[in-house]
Structure formats: structure tokens, C-alpha cells
Amino acid sequence: MRRLFAASTMALLLAAGSAQAQVDTASVDAAVQRVMPEVVAWRRDFHQHPELGFAETRSAGVIADHLRSLGLEVRTGVGKTGVIGVLRGARPGRTVALRADMDALPVQEATGLDFASSATGTYMGNIVPVAHACGHDMHMAMLMGAAEVLAGMKDRIAGTVVFVFQPAEEGAPPGEPKGGAALMIAEGALNDPKPEAIFGLHVVPGRPGSVFYRPEGFMAASDRVDIRLKGKQTHGAWPWRGVDVIAVAGQVVETVNTLTARTVDPTTTPTVFTIATINAGVRYNIIPDSATLSGTLRTFDTAQRDALVARAETAIDHVAEAYGATAEFGVKQNAALVFNDPGLSAWLAPVLTDAAGEGNVNAATPPTTVAEDFSYFQQVIPGVFYHLGASPDGVDPATSAPNHSPEFSPNENVLPLGVKTHVLTVLRFLERS
Ligand SMILES: [Zn+2]
Ligand SMILES: [Zn+2]
């Protein structure tokens, strides 16, 4: 009798436990609405006080204080200015991570917002204007809001949530070997506790309230390319007495463009190879000794990328040699391919639809040739990165100012959706059997 009673009590407790585990979407909605005034205030504060990559000390302080006030375990200085917050639910379970990036850009803001930036920072030895021209202010604020909502539901959570606030997403600053994601990983961001999966989002031009991503290759791998040509200086009137490095530079640009267009299958692996700078010479009638070119390579397939790099290096060597010049070719990866785990991508679509509403989620959007270092987290654990449409109200997304523009001004009305997608993703992930 006693035993039977104990068993039925256990059954009741288990039933209560599993009923508690499911936090319904309406409660999430209500909790998100409660934190919105704070989220908007944080966003505006970050916006007004932007900081360049690995200089996000003020932002990191605001984030760490908030996470501590919620009772999270907080680690600071993970990858210089990175912050990790760990929320442990009332019961054990899975571990999942959410990530936001923190850095701003050397851009003179021209949004006309009341809380526009007048901040400056040091970039390549110069004092430059700094602005949140990529929307990372929104990302920090949304993730802080999600941490608050989830901390308030701690008693109903089985499992652990790791909040990753990452510096220096916009590439390793000059002189730094690693960018923010790679450095945080090297310093143990994904250890102790080790998440099973990671999710992140980015505000981009798009219909406000829309969410879009794709499985597998979503955002391109990005390489920086540097080409150094050496010729022989001569008078502009006597080109035959030297080696005309200007003519060689012109051939090199042609070679890069043609190789990319003529040797890569554009239907399977979109590829962009852009030469963006050419520096050579100081005077109109002197052919200089040397020229430097730099550019960016965007690819979706590592083997194709490696083959194209090898072909480009060989071709550029041959071009230089034909004119009596020499060429040095250097490639450095800025970001790996953002590769969305196919299984998790499929799982996530209904969760995001629950957050954004029917018809607002496109889980098969075309790939994009911009890059994100979220990709490095995805090389360690499976993850999904998605975009949040955030064009200003009444503005055609096709013509709204893009990320990195001095006029980029993401729509604050999408902040609740970003908080909600973070929260629902975590809750539903931890509830997975
Ligand atoms: Zn950016
Ligand atoms: Zn960005």
C-alpha cells in the first residue's frame, strides 16, 4: 500500500514536472513584452556608445552587470572583451547556446537618429568616427532581453543556456591574428558547459518581421587576397627600358575576373572574386617599380575555393612572367562558410514560425555572398544562423540602406521578434526528447 502510494506520488510529480516544462508561446509573448522598454533603452544606449572590435569594454561591462543581476554565472574577458553568461535551469537537461556580436564599425553615422553616435575610436593608428552600422547594438539588446526572459522562467527550464556575447565580428582588427569568434573558441567559450548547438541572428534589410535562412551554405566563406607585383621602374616615355607593372596589374585584374567567370560552375557554387584596391605610382610620367592589389574572395565550397585559389596563383605568376615581372600572392581567411546544420535548420522552421507568424519565415532563401564569423562556432558544434528583416517601415527593402552604410538604421519594431525567436528556440530545443 505504502509502495503504491509512493509510485502514484512519483507519477503525479512527473506529470507536474512535464506540464511545467512546456512554456507556452503566449506566456513567452507576455514576458517578452515586459522586457521591451529595457531592450529598447539598451539598444539606444549601445547605439550611442559604439566600440570597435576588441575595444568593447563599456558594452561588455553593461552586459556582464545585467547578466549578474539575473543570477547567471558570468565569465568576462573571454577573447579580450567577450562575455559568457550561463543560466542553469531548475532541472538538469541539454545545453544550448545563443550568440550576439558586439562590435561597431569605423563609419561616420548619417542616420539622423536622436541617439546617433558621435563616438570615435582608433583604427589603423588613426582616430576615426565609430557607429553601429551593422546593427550589433540590436543584437546585444535582444540577447540581454532573452536572458532576462529565460532567467524569469528558470524554474520551468530543464537544462542550461549559454549566452555568448562576442567581440570583433567584423574581422580581426589589423595586427590581430584572430577575430572574435575564433578567439573566444580558442579561449574556451564552448567548454564547460559545452553546448550541443548554437543559434544566432542578424538584422538585415528585409520586410520587418520576416525571418530567412537556408540549410547548409547560407553565408559565404570570405578570404582576403593580396597580390604584390614587382616590375622595373622607368620613365613613362621609355616603357621598354623597364617592366611596366601598371600594365601587368591591368592583366591581373582581367585574369582574376575571367578565371572566376569561366572556370567555376555558377549554378552549384556561387563565387565572387573582387579586386577592390590597386596602389601604384606617384607621378603621371614615371612607371613605378611595384604595385599592390587587394580583394576579397567569396565562396560556398571549400574544394572549389582551394582549386580557384591555386589556378589564380598560377595564372597570375604566368601573367607576371610574360612581362618580366614577379608576383606574390597571399590569401587569408576572414570567415568560414556559415553552414547551417540541415537537421537543425528543418527543426527550427516551425519554432521561428511560432515566433514570427505564418508566412513570415522563409527557410529556403538564396545564399548570400556576405560573411559572418558565426561560422567558426558552427565548425565546433552544429548551429543555425538566420536573418531578421529590419528595413524601416514603409521603405522598400530593396532600396533601404544596407549593413555598413552610414545610413543603416534597422527597425526597432523587430526587437520583440528577435527576443522571442531567441527564447522560443532555447525553450523548444531544451524540451526536445
Ligand atoms: Zn557587419
Ligand atoms: Zn554584422
From TrEMBL:
Signal peptide: 1-21
Domain Peptidase M20 dimerisation: 225-322
InterPro entries for this protein: Amidohydrolase, Bact_exopeptidase_dim_dom, Peptidase_M20, Peptidase_M20_dimer
Top-level lineage group: Bacteria
Keywords: Hydrolase, Signal
Coiled coil: none
NCBIfam families, per the entry: amidohydrolases
Protein name: Amidohydrolase
